[in-house]
C-alpha cells in the first residue's frame, strides 16, 4: 500500500479461514486488505468437503480474480490465500502461491510469508535424495520435509519439518481436515488469529485483514507456535521451546498498514511516536512539517504535534501510478516529468520545510524529493528520518540482501545529507525507535529485530553467512 | 484521485501542447496528472506536419496506452488529450475523446470538459437540418456549428459557434496549423496556460499538469476567452463580452488536486482555510480530528490547527480499490466486509472524534463512515462538513442533475444528523466558504458558482429549465 | 474461407433477420457462415421493440462475441449483422459495421457490402453542405443522403438516396419498424432472401447462410430492387428501372462458398464445370491432377474427371494459419520454412502434375506453389487456371484497384509461365467461363461482370475514371 | 488439423532441434505443423550454452507465442517443444509441456507424447518414497525415476528409467549438453529424425514437421531405441531388446497429416488405398462419392477412383470453427443451426450418395452427417467406413478409455446402420486395413496396433487391466 516510491519490498501476506460457507470470498477480502504486502501474484486454495481446489496467477488480486466465476468455482468452507511481492524478471506463475499438492493419499495447500536461511542447503540435500522442485521459492521445501518425515502422525511430521527450516516464516497449510498455521521461533513476521461472528476462525498476516471482514481479534500467533484449526476448534502448540521474540521493526516503520496492530501495538500510533520522539531528538526551526505520502504521514504529524510546527500537505502522491507503463524519455525527465509525487508549490514556496520520511534505503528517492521541494520554491529542506540508518541486509523476509544498495552502510550522516542535497538530516536513534514502538517483551531490543540497523542478527545465518561476510567486506 | 468513496463525478480533463517534439508523450504525462478528473476513457490526437492521428479507448490512461508502440505511432509536435469520467452503463468507445474529424478540406481534433445547457435543442435543430451525430456526448455539437457556419475565416466560424453553445465548457481544438482553447463566459471549469522550457505552450484543466511536466504557469484562460496557439506564438481573444466569472466552487471543495491552483488560489490552502473557518463556526469538544481520505485531509488538518485538537489518522483508505470486481455477498456485508475505508481501532477506540468531510451528497457514505468509527470503538462522532449543504443540481459539468439524490434538499441539518447517526453535525456557511477560498473577483459570490448551495444559477438553464422546475417540485 | 493464400479480398458480408425471438443469435450463426467474406471486424445491431442496440469490434466474429453476455444483451426479434474484410493498416473500430445512428426522431442500423464509384464526390459535396463523417467507409454516405432528403416518407427518402449512390452495393438497414435490403442496379454482389420455419425473414449475402440456420431459400434480391420486411410481411419494389445484371464473376470463381447458389447456380458446380471446360480447352498429358486448397479443389476434380487423369491430394493446407504472428527469419525462409501449404512428397515425387488454381493475381503465390511441388520431387508442373487472365482493376467491391499488381496486365501467358516457373500454363477462355457458370440472363456476358478480364465495365466509373485511365497508362 | 468434427483426440506432438542458431523459431515452425496433434497448450524449452529457458501456456501455439518478444527471449541453439491435446475441464498450465527442471547439479527439459499403462502404480510408489508431483500428467514420472536411479552415468539412469515405464511413449529430453529421444518398445507413436541444411538434427512426431522446415528425413526412431544428439553427432542405442513393432493404426486412419510418412508409408496414400479396398469390399450403386472433410477426403477419392463413381464436394467444412464460443440454443439447433459442416444442396439434391468416413466412434457425428445430407435432398446415403469397427479402448495415447462410448462395442453393423439412419453401412475389414497400409514388418498385424478393433493388446495393461475388464463387462 505504501511502498511505491521506495525500493523496499515485503515478502508476501497470507490469510486463511476455517468454517465459513463462503470461504473463498472471505479470503479474497482478507487478501485485499493485505495487497500492500505483495503485488506480483495472488492465489486461493479452498477445501470443499475434503477436496482441494485452487486458482493463482500473476497480477494484483483483483486481476487474478477479475472473473467472478473463478471465485465461484472455489467452493468450500475453508480456504487459504496468498499475495506475493513483486520482484523483477522472475515473474513465473510457478512461484505464485498457495501451492496445491495432490498426493495419492492426501491433498495439501501451502502458503508462506518469509525467507528461510537454510533453504539452499536443505534443497541441495533433498535433491541429492531424489526430490524434484518445481519453483524457485523456498516454500516447497517444507512440503518435501513433511512428506519425507518418518513420523507416523501428520502433525508430528509437520512439527519435525518446522524444526528443520530456519529463518523467518509464517506458514499456512490447508489439508483435507484442518488448517494449520505456524510461526518461526523469533516471530519475525506478524500473524494473528481472529474469529468471525459465525464462529469461523481466521488467520492473517495483519490485523487489518481481521477488521475488514468483521472478525474479532483473538490473539497473535507467538514465536515457535503451531496452530491447528479444525471442526473440533482451535488448538495451539509449541513446536519448539527455543524461542526468542524478534519482531521485524520495519513492519512498524514501513510495511504494515497503519490500522494494523502488531503484538498489541497500533502501527499508526507507533509511527506517530517515532515522529514525536524524532522532534525531541532532532529539533529544528522551520515553517512547516510535511511527510512523504503515505507511509510517513503518521510520523510527520507526530513530529508536528511535538514540535508545535504546523503540519502541511506539501507533497501529493498520484494514486494512479501502479500501472503506468509509459516512461518519460531522458529529455522529458530533465524537463521535469514526475509521475508519482508532486510538490505543492502553493504550500512550500518560500518556506522552510521539515520533511519527515520513514527510512532511507539508497538515498535516490530522498534526493529526488528534496529536489522536488526546492524546485517548488522551498527555501530550506530539513530531512528527518523516523528510524535509524539502514546498514545491514535482512535475511528474514525483506528484500535487502546486500549492503551495496544501502547508502548508510557506506556514508556518514553528514555525507548522506550532502548527497541528498538536504539542508540538514537526522535519524531517529535505536533507543528512540524501541521506545516509540514500546513492545513489552523481556528480550533483547524489547523483542524487536534491529539487525538492519546494528548487524545483531537474532539467529545464525546458515547459508547466508558467506553472503553476509562478503557484504561486510564490500 | 480523490473521488472514490463519494458519488460525485467530474466531467473530464483536457490537456494540449503545441511545439514539443514528443507531444504525445508530454500529453500522456499531463493527462496522467489529470486522471482524477475522469477514469472511464482516455485519448490523444497528435498533429504531425498537418496530418492528424489519434488513439482513444475505454479504461484508465495507462490501460489505453499500455502498449508503448501505440504512443510511438502518435508522432508529431502538437497534441491534445482527454480523460473522461466514469458513468454507469454508457461505456461506448464512441464517446471517448478527443474526437478526430477528417474532412476533404480540413482535419480537426476536439476535446471538451463541461456540460452544455442547450445541447438538446441544438442537437435537435441540427438533426432537423440533416446533421448526423455519432456519439451521445455534447461535444460533437461544436463541430457541426463550426462546419455549418457561413463565415469565411475558420476562427470566425469557431467564434460564431462558441457564441451558440451555452453552459459550462472548456474546449481544446487541434487543427492542421493551430491549437485552440476556449472557455465559457462564466469560466465554470478551470483551464490554465503554461510554457515549457523549450518554448512549447501547454493548456491544461489544472495547474498540477503543468507542474508534472515542468511547465511554467503563464496565466489562466478567463471567461469568454479563446486562445489560439500556433507557430507564430500565442494570441488571446475575447469571443464574447458578456462574461461573469462563476468558477465552480466544488473544484476547490472536492474535485481539483490539492497541488493545483485555480484563479491564483492553491486548492490545499483553500481547503485548509475551510477547515479553519469551520472550527470557528462549529466548535466542539473532542479528543481528535480526523479527515476522510483523501479529499478531506486538508480541511481536517485546518480544523485541528484552529481548534488545537490533535489531528489523527483515524481512517485508512485501501489504495487498491479502483479495480476490485468481486463484491461481498449480502451476508458478508453484514459481517463487516469493507473494502475501501477502514477505521483505525487503535486510534479511535474510546475517543471523541471530530470527523471532517468535504461535503455530503446522499448521506449514505457519511452514515457508513460514522458506523465504521463507532464499531471501531469511537465514543462520539461529530461530523463537520467543509462546505454548505448541497441542495440543488448542477448543469455545468458535475454529475448531479436531480435533487432527489441530495439529502440536504429534503432534510434539515438535524434530520441529516440523525440519519447519518452522528452525535452532532455542522456545515460550513456560504460566507465561510467564499471567504475561505478568497477569490478576488468583483462578481456575485466573489466569482464563485454557488448554485448547488443556493439555487442561484449564473445563467439561464435552457433545456434544463424544465428538469429543474420538476426537481424543485419533487 | 478460401482466401488465405491469395491476395484477393472480398468487401464484406451482410446478414439480417426479422421476426425471430433470438435474432442476435440467428444473426451470429448467419454471419459465421459468411466469415470467409471478411475477417477484419464484425458487428450486430438488434431491434428490441423499437429500441436499437449494437456491438461491433475488430477481429473475427468469434472474438468480437467471445463473451456470451455480449450477445445476451443484444435482445430483440430483429437484427442485422456484418463481417468486414481485412485491409492493411486501416484497422479502426470506427469503420466496423453495422453503424448505429440515433436521431431525436429515429434510430437506424446500417450495413453495407460493396464499393461506391461516386463516394468521393458525394462525400465532398455533403461536407461542403456541413455534413460530418466519422469513418473512412463509403457506408455513411447513404445515411446522409437519406437524412437530407426533402421527401416526406421515409421509404421515399431511402429510394431517393439509392438513386444517388453509384457502383456496387448491397445494403441492409434496420429501423424501429422494418428491415430494408437494397441491391445496386447491376446486382454485382449476391443477396438472397430466405424464410425460417417460424416465419421469420432473413436476408444474406450468400445462400450458405440460409442453409446454416435452416431457412428456406425464397429468391435472390434482383438488380435495382429494394426489399421492405416488417411485421406486415415482405414487400419488394424496384427503386430504379435502369438495371442491367452484371453479377461479379469472381464470386463464382473464388469468393463465394462452394455450397452457396448465386442466381440459381451452385458455386461448386460452376467451378467443377470450369475445370471440365479447362480440361477440354487446355489438355495435357500427366500423372495426376491436384488443386490448390481449398478454393480450387472443385475445379481440379472437374479437370480430373473430364481428362480421366487421377485426382490426387498433392498439397496440404495447414488450417492453423490465420493467427500465426511469428514469421520465419530470412535465413529460415531460405531453408524452407513454409507455414501455409505443404506439398505431399509421397504423392508428387517423380510425377507429372497438373496444378489447377482458380486465378492468378500477382503470380507470386503461383510461383511459390510450383517451387514447392518441384522441391517435393514433381517432375513436371503444368498450371491450369480456372478463369481468364485478370487484367483490369475492380471498382465494385473487390480489392484490386490498380493494374500494377496484376501480372497478366503486364505480361503474356508465355512470360507468366516462365515467371512462375511452370512447365506449361493455360487460362480458361472468357467464353469458357461464361458457359461454365451458365447464367440465364438476357444481358452482355450472360449477366456476368467480366470487367477484370476485358475492361468492359458495365457502368460509368465516376470518381475512379481518372484512376482507371492512369492505370492503363502505367 | 482434421479432428474437429470427431471425438477422437491424439495425445500430443513433440519436436526438437540441436545445432541451429535460431532453435526456438525452428521449433515454433515445427510445432506449427504438428498443431493438429494438440490444441490445448504449447511450450518450448531452449538451451543457451547450457542454460535452459522455457515458455509454455494454454492455447494454440500462435496464441502462446503471440508476442514475438517471448520467442526472442528463448535464445540458444537447441530446443524442444510440445503441443498438448485438448481435454475438457482439466486446463491447468501446470500440465503444459515441456517441463523444465532446475536442479542444483543439472537442468532438464522434458516433453512426452503417449500414455503410460503403469503410471498410477509408479506414482503411488514414488509418492510413498517421498516424491512430490506437480501435475496430473504421466510425464513427470520419468524425471523422478531418472533422479532416483542409483546409476552413476546420466544415460544409464535414463535407460534404467525407460525400462521402468510401460505403455506408449515418445520422449524428448533436453539437457545442458544433449538432446535425447526415446520410443517405447512397441513404437506406438511415430517419431522421426531429420537433418537441416546447416547440419542441425531434428526429431519430430511426424515427417510433415521435417518438410515444413526444409529438413531431410534421415530415419524413423524404432521401437526400444534411445537417440542421443549432441555436439559430437548422433548416436542411436537400443535400451531394451524386447521389442515388437505395433504402430498405432489410427495414425494412418485419422490422426496424422496426409503429407506425413510413417514407417515409410505416406498417410494420404494409405488412406486412398483404404478407400480403394473399401470400394472392392463393399461396392454399391450410386451417383457420387463424397468424403467427410478433411480426414476422409483421401479415402473418398480412392473409393471414387476404384468404383468409377464421380467424386464430389458434397460437404463443406467451415474453417472458422475452432474458436466459436457461442452455442445455438436448443430451439435454434432444431431449426437447423450447424456451424461446422454444411451439405451442398446444389450437389446432393436428388442424388444417391456414398459417404466415406474414416471411422465411427460414438455414431452421433455420422448420424448428424447423414441427416444433413438427407435434409439437403440426398435420395440415398450409403455410409462406407475406411477402417474396421472400433470396439475396444486404447491405453497407449488415444483418448478412448472406455467401451461405453464406442457404438460398435454394443451394436451390430445392421443396428449401427439403423441408428445412423443410413441406407447401407459397411466397414473396411481388418485384413483390408492391414493391406491398404502395407507395412513391411515381420510381426503380428504386419507391425500395426489393431487393439481397438480386436482387443489384441500387444502389451500387458498393468494399471488399466481392471478398467479394461470392467469395460468388457459393461
UniProtKB/TrEMBL annotation, chains A, B, C, D:
Domain of life: Bacteria
Pathway note: Purine metabolism; IMP biosynthesis via de novo pathway; N(1)-(5-phospho-D-ribosyl)glycinamide from 5-phospho-alpha-D-ribose 1-diphosphate: step 1/2
Binding site for Mg(2+): 295, 357-358
GO molecular function annotations of the record: amidophosphoribosyltransferase activity
Cofactor note (record): Binds 1 Mg(2+) ion per subunit.
EC number assigned by the record: 2.4.2.14
Family from the record: In the C-terminal section; belongs to the purine/pyrimidine phosphoribosyltransferase family.
PANTHER family given in the database record: AMIDOPHOSPHORIBOSYLTRANSFERASE
Name of the protein in question: Amidophosphoribosyltransferase
Organism: Enterococcus entomosocium
Gene giving rise to this polypeptide: purF
Amino acid at each position: 500500500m505504501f511502498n511505491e516510491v521506495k525500493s523496499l519490498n515485503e515478502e508476501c501476506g497470507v490469510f486463511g479461514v476455517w468454517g465459513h460457507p463462503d470461504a473463498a470470498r472471505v479470503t479474497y477480502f482478507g487478501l485485499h486488505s493485505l495487497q500492500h504486502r505483495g503485488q506480483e501474484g495472488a492465489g486461493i486454495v479452498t477445501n470443499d468437503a475434503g477436496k482441494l481446489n485452487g486458482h493463482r496467477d500473476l497480477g494484483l488480486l483483483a486481476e487474478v480474480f477479475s472473473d467472478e466465476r473463478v471465485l465461484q468455482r472455489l467452493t468450500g468452507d475453508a480456504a487459504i490465500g496468498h499475495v506475493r511481492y513483486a520482484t523483477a524478471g522472475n515473474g513465473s506463475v510457478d512461484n505464485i502461491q498457495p501451492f496445491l499438492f495432490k498426493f495419492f493419499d492426501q491433498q495439501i495447500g501451502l502458503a508462506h510469508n518469509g525467507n528461510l536461511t537454510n533453504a539452499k542447503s536443505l534443497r541441495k540435500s533433498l535433491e541429492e535424495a531424489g526430490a524434484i522442485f518445481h519453483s524457485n521459492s523456498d516454500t516447497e521445501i517444507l512440503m518435501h520435509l513433511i512428506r519425507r518425515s518418518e513420523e507416523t502422525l501428520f502433525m508430528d511430521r509437520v512439527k519435525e519439518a518446522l524444526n528443520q527450516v530456519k529463518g523467518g516464516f509464517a506458514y499456512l497449510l490447508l489439508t483435507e481436515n484442518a488448517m494449520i498455521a505456524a510461526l518461526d521461533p523469533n516471530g519475525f513476521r506478524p500473524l494473528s488469529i481472529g474469529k468471525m461472528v459465525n464462529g469461523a476462525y481466521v488467520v492473517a498476516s495483519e490485523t487489518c485483514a481481521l477488521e475488514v471482514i468483521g472478525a474479532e481479534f483473538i490473539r497473535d500467533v507467538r514465536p515457535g507456535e503451531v496452530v491447528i484449526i479444525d471442526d473440533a476448534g482451535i488448538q495451539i502448540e509449541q513446536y519448539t521451546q527455543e524461542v526468542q521474540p524478534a519482531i521485524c521493526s520495519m513492519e512498524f516503520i514501513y510495511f504494515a498498514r497503519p490500522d494494523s496492530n502488531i503484538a498489541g501495538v497500533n502501527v499508526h500510533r507507533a509511527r506517530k511516536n517515532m515522529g514525536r520522539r524524532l522532534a525531541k531528538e532532532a529539533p529544528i526551526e522551520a515553517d512547516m512539517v510535511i511527510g512523504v505520502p503515505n507511509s510517513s504521514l503518521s510520523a510527520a504529524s507526530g513530529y508536528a504535534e511535538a514540535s508545535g510546527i504546523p503540519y502541511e500537505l506539501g507533497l501529493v502522491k498520484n494514486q494512479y501510478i501502479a500501472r503506468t507503463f509509459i516512461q518519460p524519455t531522458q529529455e522529458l525527465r530533465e524537463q521535469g516529468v514526475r509521475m508519482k509525487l508532486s510538490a505543492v508549490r502553493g504550500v512550500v514556496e518560500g518556506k522552510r520545510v521539515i520533511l519527515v520520511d520513514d527510512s532511507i534505503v539508497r538515498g535516490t528517492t530522498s534526493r529526488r524529493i528534496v529536489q522536488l521541494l526546492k524546485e517548488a520554491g522551498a527555501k530550506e529542506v530539513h530531512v528527518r528520518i523516523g528510524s535509524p540508518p539502514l546498514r545491514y541486509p535482512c535475511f528474514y523476509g525483506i528484500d535487502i540482501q546486500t549492503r551495496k544498495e544501502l547508502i548508510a552502510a557506506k556514508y556518514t550522516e553528514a555525507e548522506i545529507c550532502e548527497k541528498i542535497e538536504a539542508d540538514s538530516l537526522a535519524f531517529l536513534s535505536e533507543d528512540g525507535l524501541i521506545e516509540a514502538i514500546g513492545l513489552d517483551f523481556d528480550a533483547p531490543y524489547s523483542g524487536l529485530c534491529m539487525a538492519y540497523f546494528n548487524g545483531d542478527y537474532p539467529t545464525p545465518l546458515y547459508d547466508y553467512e558467506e553472503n553476509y561476510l562478503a557484504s561486510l567486506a564490500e
